[in-house]
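Weekly structure sync, notes
Attendees: PL (lead), two postdocs, one rotation student
Agenda item 3: pending single-chain targets
PL asked that the sequence for the first pending target be pasted directly into the notes so everyone works from the same version. It is reproduced below exactly as submitted, 64 residues in total.
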Amino acid sequence: MDMETVKLSRIVEKLAPELEPFLTERERHLNIVLRDGLGVLEPEDAMEIVQLSICEQQREASLH
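Predicted structure, written out during the meeting:
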């Protein structure tokens, strides 16, 4: 499978909809590059992607 770029909101919608209320608007619109595409992601992968994305956004916010 080829790499695929998707919005974080699409990953959450498909694999972890219960996390949607915890994302900011900016986080929802983050582009995520998936090495093997969305079709092979598991729910635990989605959780890890969400956690890392939130941490990265918080880190960037604290640097400004």
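Discussion points:
- The longest helix spans residues 43-63.
- Residues 46 and 58 are 18 Å apart (CA to CA).
Action: rotation student to compare against the earlier draft before next sync.
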